[in-house]
Design a protein that fits this description.
This protein is an all-alpha fold. It contains six helices and no strands.
Length: about 110
């Protein structure tokens, strides 16, 4: 995983505004435990173009950090984007599964 991050960082320097690359790099960073940087890149990605995957990854990070209300909001955004676009959508069943699991839980740290 660390090698993948290193490779992706190199590509990112050449293509800093590529939303798909930011999705992949953000996910890779999260997988190696770099949550703060992963969140920053995924948020940056969302300023370039709304994306279901970025919202799904941010929801998973929020769940890992115990921020369930934030996760639900991100999952709702991912679902909305996925329903509107066939090109930029994670599996809706994954979004729906997480939503049903965590809907209605509180969050004191959004």
């Amino acid at each position: 995983p660390e090698e993948a991050v290193k490779l992706l960082r190199g590509i990112w320097t050449a293509r800093p505004n590529d939303p798909v690359l930011l999705d992949v790099l953000g996910l890779a960073l999260w997988r190696v435990g770099e949550n703060a940087e992963a969140k920053q890149l995924l948020e940056e990605r969302l300023t370039l173009r709304p994306g279901a995957e970025a919202n799904l990854f941010l929801a998973e990070i929020a769940l890992e950090e115990g921020r369930r209300a934030t996760a639900v909001a991100r999952l709702n955004s991912a679902r909305e984007i996925a329903e509107q676009s066939n090109n930029d959508s994670p599996p809706l069943d994954a979004v729906d599964r997480l939503l049903s699991e965590f809907k209605g839980d509180g969050d004191s740290n959004p």
